[in-house]
């Protein structure tokens, strides 16, 4: 039996895809390439940029402020679109950069438009994925603006776990994570020193350990309670939070 791609697994969680939908979706994977860590697939201000579908590895999306500071908007994992707005906007509004060695498939505007015209069920699933990404950005704004640092970190790690679980990676015990404390700092509006302190406090509280590229949930339910974590904004049900 052919293993489903991360994107197919993700979209299938929203709608049952027909054989025709799957055939159309397979064309999204025709131009797969390998990119090294640090490669910018899309850069802010780029015109006529392509979009990509990430099939392996981790990516971040960010903006650079005039003083050189970086704000990471989100992290992308297998099954996510990269720079989807870039094929609709005349100019890309953010940079997309590989955090690890990745595999990603270039998706042209014509591919998206063809899917919308000929595979309406698939088009609906793609729109769902884009809407889910927007909902995550809203939640990240709440994280940055209102949640204390420990709750902010707990919520972020649980969101990653939930997203990874949807594509078959990670569970209630934890997940492999290549992010550094500097990535976490730039995403959560903290300093690297503060990130280190928060992670230590969560570890000492027996909730979660983040060491050697692995997030380990020592008390999953306790972390959920601390974060007040609810998967409603991810529009995702499943066994992870049960």
Notes on the protein architecture:
By secondary structure, the protein is α+β, with helices and mostly antiparallel strands. It has 2 domains: 6-130, Sandwich (Jelly Rolls); 147-241, Orthogonal Bundle (Arc Repressor Mutant, subunit A), CATH 1.10.10. It is built from 8 helices and 11 strands. It has helices at residues 6-12, 19-26, 109-118, 120-146, 149-166, 181-188, 192-204, 220-227; strands at residues 32-35, 40-42, 51-56, 59-64, 70-76, 81-82, 95-98, 102-107, 174-176, 208-211, 214-217. Strands 1-8-3-6 form a 4-stranded antiparallel sheet. It has a 4-stranded antiparallel sheet with strand order 2-7-4-5. Strands 9-11-10 form a 3-stranded antiparallel sheet.
